[in-house]
Every structure is written in C-alpha cells, then in structure tokens.
Amino acid sequence: MSYQPHGKHLIAGDRIASEPGWASSPSSGPSHRFSTGSPALIAQACEAAERAFWSFGYSSRAERAALLHAIADAIEARGPQITEIGCQESGLPAARLEGERGRTTGQLRLFADHILKGDYLDRRVDAALPHRQPAPRPELRMMQRPIGPVAVFGASNFPLAFSVAGGDTAAALAAGCPVVVKGHSAHPGTGEIVAEAIAEAVAAQGMDPGVFSLVQGGKRDVGEALVQDPRIRAVGFTGSLTGGRALFDLCARRPDPIPFFGELGSVNPMFLLPSAMAARGEAIAQGWAGSLSMGAGQFCTNPGIAVMIEGPEAQAFSDAARVALGAVGPQVMLTDGIADAYRKGRDRVRGSAGVRELLTSVCDRRNATPYLYEVSGDDWLANHALGEEVFGPLGMIVTVRDAGQMEQIARALDGQLTCTLHLDEGDTALARRLMPVLERKAGRLLANGFPTGVEVCDAMVHGGPYPASTNFGATSVGTLSIRRFLRPVCYQNLPEALLPADLA
Ligand code: NAP
Questions:
Q1: Which residue ranges have biased composition labelled Low complexity (predicted)?
Q2: Which helix (H) or strand (E) holds 349?
Q3: What is the per-residue pLDDT across 291-339, written as a single tens digit (0 to 9) for each?
C-alpha cells in the first residue's frame, strides 16, 4: 500500500502539525501538504535532544549498535513504500532508490559493527610515574566522547543515503549524539517515512525519544535557527556551496562557534595521460560519458572536466564522447530549481570566452540533456569560473599544450572531492609529477576509474579542501566520519570509579 504522508514534524516521538502548510512538488504522483518548520519548533527539538543526551551520551556501545540495527530493520520493513514515494518526489528510478536504501541500511549496520570494535574511541593511557624527577607524572587517560546534539541537513540528490537516516545521522547516533534533522523540501514524504522508522526504533529500544527529531522546512529561517541553536554542538550538511556557505558563516558567527561539516560541490577533474589516451582514449571517453550522465549528472562526484594534451588522440576522445553523450536521452532532474540552475550553468559556460559547444540539445522544464564543451588550457586558466560545478550532465574537455600546462591546470584547481588519473605504464613520470599537486587538492585520488560510486568503508574519504568541504580534516562517508561528532577528553589522575566504563 502506498505511504500517505501525515505532513507533520516528528519531534521527540510526537507528530506535531504547524501552519501554514506547503505543498510538495513531486516529479510524478500526488502532491502532499507539509507543515512549515519554525524557530520555535527547532528550539523544541533541540531541547529534547539536549535532554536525551544525558542518557544517550552515556549509553553503552551495545545499546547504540542495537539501535542502529533496529533503524535499519524498520527502514527495510517500509522498503517498497519508501521506494514508491522516493521515486515520485525525486524523479530517480526505482532501482536507484532500492540501491540507495541498501546503502543506507548497510551504513547503519557498518557503524553498529564499528563502535562494537571500540577502536574509534582511540583510548590512550600514560601510566603514572610517581618517582620521575624533577616532577612526578600523574596517570593520564584519553578517550573520544560524544559532543552532544548534532544538526543534520541532507541533500536533494540522495533522498536516503545523504538524508534523514543517512551517513551523518548514522555517524552521530553511533557516536552517542542525538540528532535533529532539518527536512529537505525536495523529498519531504520520503524524509517523513524514514523519520517514522527511526522514531519507532528509538521507542522499541526504550531510549529517550529526544534522541531523534525531524523538523520539516518550508522556510529558510528553519535551517538558520537550527545551526544557531545553543544546544547544537556540530552540523553535518550535504548540499550546495551557496547554501552550505551561508550556514557555515552563521555557525562561525555564533557567540560559541561550532564546527560545520559541509560536504559541498566539486567538479572532480580527470587527467588523461598520453599513453593511456593512445591506447584506449575512445573507451575512456565512453566510460566518461556514462559516469557524467548517470542519474542526470546529479552526483557530487560527477567528473565534469577532462584534461588532455591537444592532438589527434584528444580529437578522437571528443568525437567518441560526443557520440556517447548524444545517445543519452532527456532525464528528469530532482527539482525545478535544480533544472533551472543547470540551464543557467550551461549558459554561463556557453558564453565564456574560447568555449566551443561540441554537443547541444534542447533542455526544457525539469529535464536535463547532456552538453559537451571544449576549451583550451589558456582559456580555462584565464577564467576561474570554468572550474566551478555545473550540477547536471555537462562535460568540459580542456585541451592543454603539453604536460607543463596540464600541471598548471592541476595547480589552479579549487579543492575537490576527487581527482582522477587515467594512465598506463608509460605515463608514470608525468603521474608522479602531478601526484603531489593533486594530493593537495582532493580527498580521494583515483587511477583508471570514475569517481561516481563512493564505497562506504573504513578507508573512504569523502571530503576535501574548500569548497569541496568546509573542513578538510573530515569525511562524510565511511567509518572515519564518526570523528566529526566526537571530541577527546583527558582524564588526569581520576579514580577508577569516576572513569567512563569504556576507559576503566
Ligand atoms: P541545497 O539546495 O544547498 O539544500 C541542502 C539543504 O540546505 C536543504 O535542506 C536546504 O533547504 C538547505 N539550505 C540551502 N540553502 C540554505 C540557506 N541559505 N539557508 C538555510 N538553509 C538552506 O543542496 P541540494 O540542491 O539539496 O543538493 C545539491 C548539491 O549538493 C550539489 O551542489 C551537489 O554537488 C551537492 N552534494 C554534495 C555531496 C557531497 O558529499 N559533497 C553529496 C551530494 C550532493 P530547503 O529544503 O529549504 O531548500
């Protein structure tokens, strides 16, 4: 049976309605009305989260692991309903929503296993040296502790894996931090049904209901109030550079600034080195076209720029990419706003000096079709805006004079989530030259692959220097992401009876 959203906020287990309501804009299926969030509702959710922290922050790892498993089970129990409403709201196909649900429950369970192992606590003990001269040393113990209530903002392009029960929520709950989610206006019904699953699991585990709340949006002051609430200790955000930067600035301007972990946009450049281009340039072009147009190009890891040395191989590459992208039909975008922004981005690129359009199409209403452009290394270097993300299936080939100019392009890049090298053995010397530059630019470096598809595992880094993220020391995907919601506490000379159970 289809899920019928009640349209209310879910604050500490209670369904709360508020006026005025707003109507969702699904790409298909019925529109529903949702309550509008407000600063007062945010305050209510944050108060409940702060109250819950006094028990949840001191719960055992086994209790929190059980909660994470229970949330995964409750999401799976609603699987077909989540897929149906998720497809309607986002325009994404069912297979994608199903895959994303598996990823979401998989990461909840991964965090359960991760905290049970205990390594994340990073426990350290410096034994007392009572006879040390000239001064004795007391015993010092250190452990990571949860920081308190965490605010979460999901992105429109991952209505499950980067949303209400996504990586930020999973990491925060695993750490022992209650979560207040600001619902995304692009998928409010999907957010609601997932929130219901979390609230059910919290209740079934006998935990304080303030451990989790969802406040729907509808107005910008909802998110602004959330990041400024004095009880919130950190923010996990996935979304646009503009939105992320506005909220980051609000966090920094608080009387007590808090960390804002924003995962923002990226153009994910690929560097195509000469031997690889000669051996398999056309195959790489076809792979690129697939990666670039997958999900209407609405991935933060979309490889928007391909850098290569000018010549016949570059020509063959662009011919093959044009053919492959030309065969991709129109795809529905996530929201009308994202489709508008895509067209604006296209117009900006199209109107830039030296840019040649290799593939054009009609892209109207909420549909996206691919575009392909080419620009010389000189013109790209002269126009910093050509390195900015266009969210959608738009590719740009940058043809450089030589290896030296390729390195110049690498040096001119802003921070990235990923950088990719396509190389063969004969390219090793040039790749070695690029590596130290690329390592300073990106959170993840790839060889001979495409960056779309982010593995959820221990070694993953999904982050990077600004503007890819607002905190280059962090990742929003993988088990290391739990560190964002922990802080080290040192216990000096404390009697055993006062130490946290995990440290005693
Ligand atoms: P978005 O428009 O920035 O929205 C994200 C959230 O922030 C929404 O809840 C939105 O509220 C809120 N928001 C945006 N601007 C705000 C402001 N000025 N004040 C208060 N709240 C604000 O992002 P999106 O369109 O959902 O996501 C697409 C972008 O996310 C792309 O650029 C993509 O590259 C990036 N992305 C990054 C990653 C990553 O891991 N780095 C992953 C996925 C996507 P409303 O609901 O009211 O709009």
A1: 18-31
A2: helix 336-350
A3: 999 999 999 999 999 999 999 999 999 999 999 999 998 999 999 999 9
Burial of residue 403 (CB within 10 Å: 0-12, 13-18, 19+) is: middle
CA distance 503 to 486: 15
Asked whether the beta carbons of 244 and 470 are under 8 A apart, the reply is yes
Q: Are 385 and 406 in contact (CB under 8 A)?
A: no
Is 236 in contact with 261 (CB distance < 8 Å)?
yes
- Shared domain for 275 and 256, answered yes or no, is no
Question: For a pocket test of ligand 1, which of 181, 184, 340, 476 has the largest count of ligand atoms closer than 8 A to its C-beta?
Answer: 184
Residues 196 and 342 in one domain: no
Domain residue limits at 348:
270-447
User: Ligand 1: distance of its center to the CA of 237 in Å?
Assistant: 8
Same domain assignment for residues 200 and 292: no
246 and 366 both lie in a single domain: no
192 with 253, same domain: the answer is yes
CATH code of 237's domain: 3.40.605.10
> Would you say 499 and 125 are in contact if contact means Cβ atoms under 8 Å apart?
no
